Structures are given as structure tokens and as C-alpha cells.
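Bench notes, afternoon.
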Amino acid sequence: MSGRSAALSHLLVLFLVILAAYLSTASPVLAERSVTDMAGRTVRVPDRISRVATIGAVPVLNSFVFALGQSATIANNLPPNLGGARWRFQYVVAPDLAKRPVVQSSEGPIVEGVVQASPDVVLTMDRKTVDLMERVGIPAIFLSWRQPDDVKDVMRLLGELYQRQDAAEAYCRYFDDTLAKVSARTEALSLEQRPRVLYASLDRLTQPHRIAEWWIEKAGGRSVTDNGRTAEAFNFSIEQVLDWNPEVIFVSAEREIAAAYANPVLASVSAIKNRRVYAVPMGVHVWGNRTVEQPLTVLWAAKLIHPDTFGDTALESEVRSFYENFLGTSLSDEDIREILEGRAGQHR
């Protein structure tokens, strides 16, 4: 071999050694992995998730992401129909949401907006959205929350997606521990010791979410609308309210309290006579509906349904701790009062 050929050979070997060393230490740019969603679909996603789009039930989906400490990854704002101060705490937890593009309208996802937001993955509870995203080549994770404990399955799946399994398990432990603390005081209650409870929008004469049947029972009450239905909402008449004669009423909005007390038709109802009408709290979502704040809902309801039994429950401290530990947000005393009184955004 000539001297020139030997030199070239040495240079080639040196280049290959350097290239191999670089490839062995460099992170793969397009590394992917598989995640199985709650529809049993295998979805290929980037190894590192830095941007997600939440489409459909946006505040609920956001609350899951918040609880994993990943609010900065949400690539879209709330839909226009959810604007206003009522959703203030979504922006308290994730201030940059207001700067993000809107990717859905009242008619559904805005495909161009989703593409421009460039998410690594879409999170949704809507199968049609999953199908639409598949057609445009954007990975979509289907999440489902039909039974109360499904919130833990959702959190564990998202923990896997974000590689934050530790945070997901911490939330699940808190969920179970909080329910166990309440159950320790309510499980021995007889039927007669469980007050009749109505959760409703009295403006619309509707029980808006079936999950309330679960948290009312867990809190030691008897929901008067718990008729075994499968539909989310349940409509009723004012005559039905009189017949139920609820001893505690939880309303959807703070302004409904005064209206309930002022309604002469309801004057004979036990909850009205005994001034036991309360607004459901409103944090990153309405506590009476599906939200990661659900353990707090049970604590709050238990304290109001059974004030003597749960008189030592420091609900303000629980809210403060929950928001700090899971949502990474420090709340002021006024923030906490605003949440617990169901008047989000009204004090400003």
C-alpha cells in the first residue's frame, strides 16, 4: 500500500471512529415510542412530549395536564365559548394559555389551527376527533372518563405519555387516601342519617353531570336524582323538587343561591327553610363536574352535608396544598375563598 493510500485509510478510520462516537452519544432526533390509549389503540408518539393540543372537553383535559405539572406543554387556548372570568383559574395555573391559538370552534376542531399549533400529540375524549387527526397525520390519544375511578387510569396513561409516572401515582394515592378518610366517617351512616341532596342548575332545572351521583354518595348524602340513568344530564320539574324535598341543595353558580331563597314556590323545601343552599366550587373546572379536583369535591360536600362530623376538616388548607403539590400554583387566601364560594373571577 502506498504512503498516500495508507494516509487516506488512516483518515477514513479516524472519521468513522469520530462518527461512531458521536452517534453513540447523540440523542436520536426522531426517537419514537408506542403508547396504548383508552380505546386500545397503539399510538406512535415522540419520545419527548413538548407540545400537546387539547380538543373537545378542553378544561377537563387541561386539568389532567396541569396535575402532572405539564401546563407549559399545552399548545392551544380555551375555545371562544369558554372565555371570560369564570375560567380564570385555568389562566392562573397556565398564564401562557392566553397567548396560544384557538384550535376549535363550536362546530369542532379547526384543522388548520391544529396543524399550525404543531402538537406532538392531540389529547381528546372524542372518537371523531381521533379519526380526524389520523387523517391529517397527527397522533391522537383517546381518553375516557365514564366511571369515577377512570380519572386514575387517565392520569396513569398521561403519566406514561409524559414519562411522569411518579407524578401520576402521587395523584392516585391522594385520590384514594382522601376518599378513604371521608369513607371512614361516612360508611357507617344509616339511610336516615344521609340527608337528601340535590345538585342542579335551578335556572335550567337540570342535574348537569352524572358523576354528582357518585360524589354525593361518597360525601354521605342521598342524591335525589340518582335513578340509575346512563345519560349525563337529567331534567326535572319544579314540582319534582317539591316532592323530593331535598335537605341540601348544591347549585351550579353562586348567583343561583339568592334566586333559590327568593323563589316563593320553593319556600317549603327543607334546604330553603334551613338555609342549606350552596354553590359548587369553581377552580380550574366546576367541582360538581368531572375534574382532577374531584377529591376536594368530596371533602367539600362532606363538610357541608355533615358539618358536625367534618367540623375539623380544614378545607382551605386542603385546597392550598392540592394546588401547590399538583398544579404547581400558590393561591392567595382570596383565591381560595373565590374557588370555594363558586364565584370564580367575580372579585376582580
